[in-house]
Amino acid sequence: MHPPPEDRLASATDAELVAALRDADRGALRELFVRHEPWLAARLSRRCADPAIVDEAVQDTFVAVWRKPAWRGEGEVAAWLWGIAIRSLLHHLKPRASVVERLSRLREPDATSAEEQVLARVEHSDVGAALHSLSPELRAVVQATVIDGLTTREAATLLGIPSGTVKSRMSRARSELREALL
After folding, report:
1. What is the mean pLDDT of the chain?
2. How far apart are the C-alpha atoms of 135 and 75, rounded to whole Å?
3. Ranges of each domain in the chain
């Protein structure tokens, strides 16, 4: 006797669910959504205080996954989903103002998050000035790896560049930041 399809999907790995998506298995999409939507929404909410934009970004993430389940089997499915979600959020936030400006406009004055407070302090310090002196390419790598906490591979995916380029740009950024802060 075979388990019901819901039980089969609930016990499937994320990789198995993505493989099932390639066969247009809607149940696999539903299971992937149930597993990953809560943490994606929570993590995106830390970067955007507008729940409507966060909801749209999460929905767009899973629509993109349904249309093109292009995970290559490298790394974690969750990291792949995060890359799609953060790009979707950035798309909804255009035109891009600084992170602090966007978050400040979207939140009540008394609802400043710890992340916003730290970013504001960094932006108005010597470190902020040093970061702003970096080229946009170097600043994007620092943003993705340091501020967003992405791995080299995730940052490469997010920025659309090879992992080696992320590493070399990060090395150059560290060197330029060190010089600027001396």
Report:
1. 81
2. 29
3. 5-92, 99-181
